[in-house]
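Checklist before submission:
- one chain only
- standard amino acids only
- sequence pasted in full

Submission:
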Amino acid sequence: MLTSLKRLFYRLNMFSKLLLSFMIVIIPLAVLSLKMNQSGENIVRNELVQSNASNVHFYLSSLETEMNRIIRVEREFTSRDDDFRKFGVIPESMDDYERAQTILRIENKLSILKSSSPYIETVKIYFPKLGRSLLSGSFGGPIPPDELEAISSTMKHSGSPFVYWHDRLFLGMVYPATGPTMSFAIEVELSLPLLREALAQMSQQISSNTILINDREGWTVSDKTLNPMISKQLQFISKTAVDGKLVDQKQITLNNEPYLIYYEHSTDLGLTLVHFVPEQQAMGVLKQYRTWYWTLILFCIIVVILFSYWMYLLIQKPMKGLIKGLRQVGNGNLSIRLEHQYQDEFQNIFNQFNTMADRIQTLIDEVLEQTERSQHAELKQLQSQINPHFLYNSMFILQTLIRQEDLSHAEQLIKHIGSYFRSITRNGEDEITLEKEILHVQAYVNIQAVRFPDIEINWGAFPADVLRMKVPRLILQPIVENAFVHGIEHIEGPGKLSMEAIHGDGILTIRIEDNGDRLDDDMIDKLNERLFSDAKSKETTGVINVHRRLQLKYGKSYGVQLSRGKFGGMQVTLSLPFIEETAITENALSEIAK
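Returned file contents:
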């Protein structure tokens, strides 16, 4: 597995490796940042939960303390205060002064109780024997019987000290608690608006609510008006608090919206304080923090993309251009030049590349020029080797005729030799038309005809467009000379020599054939092998001479090939590319036909 990853890494280009290395650094940092964000989010979430739970606990504890203090004062009035008990039991036995003083003291105590708590709206004590009630600072009428019944029944059957009656909330107490006759009843009415205001202080979010619930009697005090469906669900939560956990926090769905619920139950008061807030609002800080985090992540991604694109422009794109340029140079296109718009290291590399391409082009031009000059010099050397060779043979023939005193043939030979060398010295070009080359061969054959008067020469068809084509000089005469020296000279009887030229598929083919009998098939194969495998042969005359010149001129696909001819002797086939030239004169055609 590790080896495969290494191979894959090695196959990546430089930009991919750079980007991969960058991602290897960035991804762990992003993962670590995500973990830190999640950890911080959990911490903040727990802090928010604890804060809301602490607020619920603090408010319920404060309310419990306040209500217990009021209840404790009420109990002191009923159980220990002589003024309350005397006035409730034997008010008729008091004289007017004592009665007045007692009423003043009771009113004063009620005033102190009322002013001791902001939640108390009124404090009232009802004496049945007096037939009226005493309030803090004034007299009042009797307490309605149903109100007294509500206070009495609550004390007997409810686990809560509160009396909720006709949308009013009381802390009531009767004395004595048992027995058929009641001496007096204390009624402390709590201010529901102040309670709701205190609950609203906990509900800082718009959609949050804080509710006091008495599950057994089914009444609630809320800072806002509740939907009946929500109220039922909260009643169920309150019952859960009474029967199970007294303090808890949970997540529920109200009206298809997730809410966080915090509640705590007070056994002394028989109340459950429930605070619920939409999770989206409760975790608003987390949401904002999360939004900033993902904004940062998005920003980092954009930065990575822009950085990658910038690296592509700075590194990958110039590198691709350089590789493309090197490939084109490798394919032989030396005209390509690279440009770079930034003044950086690639600018220097591109300048060096352009300098290299210029230098290579210059070197190639110099090599080509040197090659052409070398080929031209070699052709001149080969050509100079052919002329003395033929001159030597001609002079030898002339010498033989003179010794034989054959002056007629000697004179004819001198005429043909003059025509032959006049043809060579009159034109110094390296290339001549095929018609002139054939006329030159004809002059050579006429010279050889002096020696071989019985030779049969067959000039094949030479199309006009073939005769117009330019060919290297002296490519036919060495072949014809080779036919005479190695073929015709050694046979008994008349010799035969034929020459023809044809063209097709862009190739000109010239065939020269004799009827010599000294070469067998094995010798022909060996000669062919020497032609095509021994290009560096030191021999520079005859067939090899012509073969080298054709290949130097036209390439390795052309040259000379040897085979057995129809006359039984050697057939030499010359192949070279067919290039049509301008028109040829009718005199040349007629001269060749002769």
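Reviewer check: Confidence is low (pLDDT under 50) at residues 583-594.
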